Amino acid sequence: MVTTPVHPLEKKDPKEEILKAALKLFTEKGYFNTSIADIRQLADVSTGTIYHYFKNKEAIADALYTEVVRSLEESFKEIRRLNNAFERLRAILELFFELTENEPEIVRFIVMVRHQEILSQRPPLSQSPPFRLLDRIMEEGIRAGELRRMNPQVATAVFYGTVARMALLRLEGVLEKPLAFYLLDTWTAIWRALAPANEKGA
């Protein structure tokens, strides 16, 4: 997604403006409560411009899904290059917490939107490339003895379930302070659940 500030005299990319508007509307109003007219108004483009880039509303949602999944996968691949499971999982936690604070619409799209209802031809987010990569990070950590012996999918559920719940509590306003304030407590809880028995106190 576009996060680079645009100079007032520069021409904005209509396609990016459409995607930004759709992301905001889908996560605030819901996909089914958002119309093409809503997206047109927020993006400040013509209806013809929208249909120039996208066949219909589902195509806009599909483009958003593709972009979010691609961006997450690239971040996870970079994180996978770190030294061990401790560093990798801590980095993913920090990534999600930073995204929640700086790009809340993206995190809402990840954790709140029911993608299967919108994009039935797409795999569930839990089976998308970045989350399969997270499973592999778990498998590698378990095999190397860096994580406790357990089913990798259970390990992923323990980790991501905690991360997603904290993000959701922040997005819903239950947690009033930035997520960085809760980072140490969250990481300590996750690591105690996943660490080998001899490292529970790490």
Automatic annotation (TrEMBL):
The GO terms this record gives for MF are: DNA binding
Q: Where is the HTH tetR-type domain?
A: 12-72
InterPro entries per the UniProt record, alphabetical: DNA-bd_HTH_TetR-type_CS, Homeodomain-like_sf, HTH-type_Tx_Regulator, HTH_TetR, Tet_transcr_reg_TetR-rel_C_sf
Keyword list, A-Z: DNA-binding
| SUPFAM superfamilies the record matches | Homeodomain-like, Tetracyclin repressor-like, C-terminal domain
Task: Report which superkingdom the organism of origin falls in.
Answer: Bacteria
**Is this entry keyworded NADP?**
no
Extract the PROSITE patterns matched here.
HTH_TETR_1 (PS01081), HTH_TETR_2 (PS50977)
The record places the DNA-binding region at 35-54
Q: What is this protein called?
A: TetR/AcrR family transcriptional regulator, repressor of fatR-cypB operon
Taxonomic placement: Bacteria, Pseudomonadati, Pseudomonadota, Gammaproteobacteria, Methylococcales
